[in-house]
Amino acid sequence: MVTLEIDGQKVEVEEGTTVLQAARKLGIEIPTLCYNEAIQPYGACRLCVVEVIMGNVSRFQSSCSLPVADGMTVKTNSESVLRGRKVLLELYLARCPQSKEVKELCERYGVTETRFKTFDKMEDCVLCGLCVRVCDEVVGAHAIDFVGRGTERRVDVPFERLWDKCLACGACTYVCPTGHIQNEGRRIGQLRRNLGTERKCRYMLMGAVSSKICPNNYECWRCEYDQRTEYQLGNHPALALKTTGKK
Amino acid sequence: MTFEELEARAQEKWRDIKECPIPLIRVGAATCGLAAGAGEVIEVIEEEVRNQGLDVRIMKVGCIGCCYAEPIVDVQKPGKPRIIYGLVTPDKAREIIRDYIGGGDPRPDLAMGTIGEEEVEDIPRFFDLPYYKPQVRLITENCGTIDPMDIDQYVANGGFSGLHRALSLQPGDVLEEVKKSGLRGRGGAGFPTGLKWSFCRGAEGSPKYLICNADEGDPGAFMNRSILEGDPFRVLEGMLIGGHAIGASEGYLYCRAEYPLAIELIRNALEQMEEDGLTGDDIMGTGFSFHFHIFLGAGAFVCGEETALMNSIMGLPGRPRPRPPFPAVSGLFGKPTNINNTETWGHVPWILRNGADAFAMYGTEKCRGTKTLSLTGKVQRTGLIEVPMGITVEDIVYEIGGGIKNNATFKAVQTGGPSGGSIPYYLASTPVDYESLTALGTIMGSGGMVIMDDRTCMVDMSRYFLGFTRSESCGQCTPCREGTKQMYHILDRICRGQGKPEDIPLLKEMSESVIDSSLCGLGQTLGKTVLTTLTYFPEEYDEHINRKYCRARVCKELSPAPCQAACPTGIDVPSYNALIAAGRFDDALEIIRQDNPFPAVCGRLCPRPCEKDCERAESDRAISIRALKRFVADYEIKRGRRKKIVHPNPVTHDEKIAIVGSGLAGLSAANDLRKQGYAVTVFESKPFAGGMLRMAVPDYRMPPHVIDHEVKLIENDVGVEIRTNVTIGKDMMIEDLKRQGYSAVFLAIGAHLPMDLNLVGCEGAGYINAIEFLKRVKSGNREKPGDIVAVIGCDHTAVDAARTAARLGSRVTIIYPRSRDELPVEEDTLKELEEEHVEFQYLSLPVEILRRGDGSIKAVNCLQTELQCADGAGRIRALPVEGSRVLVPATAVMVSVGMKTDAFIFSSGLELSSMGTIAVDPITLATSHEGVFAGGDAVTGPTTVIEAIAAGQRAAASIKCYLCGEEFKEPYKFVKPRARIEPAEVEEGIDKFQRPEEPVRHGEERLFDFNEVRTGLTEKLAVCEAKRCMRCDYEEEDEAN
After folding, report:
1. Please, what is the Cα angle at B201 between B196 and B202, to 5 degrees?
2. Is omega for the bond preceding B560 within 30 degrees of 0, making it cis?
3. What is the least distance, in Å, from the CA of A5 to any CA of chain B?
4. pLDDT tens for residues B873-887?
5. Contact B478 A126 (CB under 8 A)
6. What is the complex's ipTM, to 2 decimals?
7. B184-198 exposure pattern, b = at least 16 Cβ within 10 A, e = fewer
């Protein structure tokens, strides 16, 4: 067990816990966009950056990826943390001015307008990478990835063409915080246009069910299994079952 | 093979080189040398040697460091020291072969220095050159001396003895040795190397990996390349030692693929090491095994970051990941990994060979040893230098670098490339070590040092580096990806003149936030450039945003062409040049008239500050801007004005303005105000307008009809009323003007009263004041002042008086206390003076006028002077030598020592300055009286025509603000082009056209008549000359968003 101090409160957690988890255990709120318990921490949205003091060295670290250590002092709302968070939220607001989630997040942290220029008013992808990572780590399909570098970076399928690695499982759509990823619908549409070959059920492809043929013509909302799993597990089946557990 | 066998073989081979029986020619053939033409030089040497039947050995070596002198050829003749020749062209190479190798002349004129114990006459020792004197060469000791392709040459110079020693020690002892040496990571962060090694050594997991980071991506950095190309074995030996100390058995060398020569040399080095059993299993029979792998980086800057680099080696996209886990715990393929910079590895063999203490002797207490730096930018001598830690920036710039190129001023140095910041000139005494640089807000980085001069705009520089990081950001984390995009956008806006005052705090806040919240080193450092420039050069940001002005004239939208910027009246020179080139002379004149109502006057008498700043002067000679202006003005005078203004400008304001004095200042102010719709009356005490130009400047320089033409245009076309023969202060008072309904008065009464020189003997006949003399001659009295005239003073009045006296038949000598070089006279005027037989008596200070018994002047008695070099202001002073005596014979003495304003004519008690001129607010030109302004010579004392016109224009702008009740602000220095004129068609051969001399009348009659001496450019010459203009104003817009 490791003891650390977060915002003046001492907390004892298991080794290997991240600072974010420890803070949430204490009920301290740290905003995140790219974090999901089922997926490996990625440290891309940087909203969860906190000030970490070890000995006499103070550093800024993303709390989602930082394992706790003995003697650590964490500040989640110091002046510089809040300043950085505010600038970040403004950057998000400038990038995705239409996104409901971004607007809500900004509102919660007192950011009402951005001082930055919006280059694309219709943009709603925050590039958190959740879709890419869930597809790779959880589903194991690796059907989508980042394309381009730096400011050109975006999420896409190879050569901008949906391909048969995509199971239409919907995990990406499920985890996407802004509703940008629409792969499931697109892929289902594609599958239905090519009916007659092999109608594989997405849960079968994920290893969640054993039957091979989808009886519902890819209309998952009519599928009992789909409704039952989500109801029972409270999560998307891909994430709840962690079918492949690649990493 | 044991180490002893290896060493014996190497020593034997080295003897062949050291005591080479035939001349040995080393050529620096690293990438820098090859780029400078070393390849061609080698071919020429081979060819020349073959032609002359000489027997020589040619060896390609790495870069010795002085890249500014590439290509470098190093000749070692038997029994002689090595002689280094720099900047060797094929022709020079032939001369060296012929004279030194063929003959015995070492050619000291081409040589840079010697290496070796003996000395050669007239050639300094190479390492005593100012470039090398402050340097300490540890890691670069072999660069430029050994063949990087030959393992034996490395071994003979101490190579692998460090490894030999390390293998005889326990790994822990090697670690201790490295710790003791105080070596810190040379990649930039400065983490203690020994400590880093011990982390990896202590980590669990097998195998362990070592990585050498040679992914050198900073713009302007080439330390790693130079080391790998000059001495590749050293880096590999360092990794072997590290492998032994850490317990690693695999090593990756991650080199950027842009370094093909370095990669070739490493591959060759590994092959040779393998043959000699220095890599692979059981190295030198000690049981230690180590395998090398070379990995080529595909050119992403972010792959220099350790986690991104490891991802790249693992075949993943080169993107960083959050740490922890640190590489020492879980690195390459999830195994403990130790990653160091090329230079860090390169230092290790030296430490093991010479001991930690020897290394720790250099540098400062916290930063031991030496650091290689790539010195680039606007410095005289650029290249790879190795200096002890703690050397100051000053020493690097001035001693090693030899100061700034082209006599420019040192402004700042950027350290650490795009991840670093700028150190301003006023902190140049900062020592170069990790802590001091961090304290200034920058970093040591891998060692790039870009020196910048005053032609560098710091805002533009920040934009450049941010543009680099923006395009190199991997895009994974938001602050770096979105932050660079937005920061670049803001900086770009500022550079384009669209900056807002709130941008400065926003930039600062953003830089700090991006530094704090980014994922990897790229984002955590990129804000430093912006932060340091904001801290050290706030005035430049302020100028860009609030005054729309770029002092370095780099930001195109904020800098007019240099000529236009230099002109006090802001004439759009490039546009009128282009119109002349296109043959549109009338249009050209209209462009000039928009800013200056006196093109013909300025075309003759302007001191042409524009030509001093002309860009063409950098490569060739400046454009004859003044002569072109005169050409178009004269063209109109000769042919008559084409463009007739039918209706004069309408009067749109109720206020009337009185202007006192019809000189250039007064008429310019009148011209501007009248054009803006004010009724203007100019009062002139003389019967004609034109001021001093019309009254005193001799006809052969300024024909009266020229000034009359321009005055008439102001009167008729613009609509200014000029009332002559009215003296304000006598016929009418300032108060009377106000009573007559003039809302504002501008006093431009000039400076007409001659000042006097209190010499002994100046009372009496033959003592003439130069300005009185000129006025007399101009009014028609052409009486000879005396047979022999001595002129005291050397301003324009004195020179004019001397030339006038010479025309009237006197023999004239100008007495000047300094030498010819200091004469405040333009070169072509000086030539004309000499043609007109005006003589000079230099270095003489008049003290007394000697007179005969009858009171007539006999001579001027002078003291000899001595020139003393620049005081603080850079002016050369002339100090009289006590007891000396120089006699200048004369029958008349003419004096011109300045003029003052006749301000006392205004009884109303205007406030005067200590100089006796009218006191005004320097910005608004307002005097102590409400509504009364003053400018021109009356305020400044005698100045130039162009400044008088500029003063008039300023007064006009200020008066307008006064009448409208607005506050008058310092006008922007930025002047916009008046028109967008396409560049003229340039025919072939125009590049050979030289700046023409202004045509001058020659012959006997010029010496005695008063017709104009200079005749002006012909049409053909003018058009050709105008085509030489480089059109600095005409820039295609960059397509940067």
Report:
1. 100
2. no
3. 19
4. 556 788 888 888 899
5. yes
6. 0.91
7. bbbbbbbeebbebbb
